[in-house]
Amino acid sequence: MALILRNGGSQSPDRWLKEPRNNQPIHDIGKIRVPIEILNKEGKLTEEEWNIIRRHPLVGAEMTKWFPKGSETKQLNQYSYEICRHHHERYDGFGYPDGLKGEEIPLCAQGVGLADAYDALVSVRPYKRKITSKEAVNMILDGACGAFSKQLLQCFQKASMKRDWIEKSD
Question: What angle do CA 57, 156, 83 make, to 5 degrees?
């Protein structure tokens, strides 16, 4: 996502880019509490299994409260919490776990949520084949992965047309 925002346009706040991009890898830390059989299931998930999956943002956010405390980690810990808890929220309010809408969703979580949606599309998963970068970009821009802010989508689209994006996606 940092590549998207860095290459996507100057409207992305530099202060956001410096630290939260380093937190993206921990966004799904709460999945440690999801049984591996559910994570690797090849077929359709049951409603009960979906409910277990939908709890991972809450579990991850709680785990961030155990991160080392101090003045130099305070902001980083806040980003970690927001990313873990809100990366599945969507701009139209149809995300989870809190059903936040629009600017209620922290910018760092919006960015990681978009990057997570893109990664899910271009990666092989037990339950699906991967698709091309171009297909993934089009699906996200068309709203097939939920609603994202117009500004974030503009940055994403602009970044996806950059040469280094194209080279990395091939």
Answer: 20
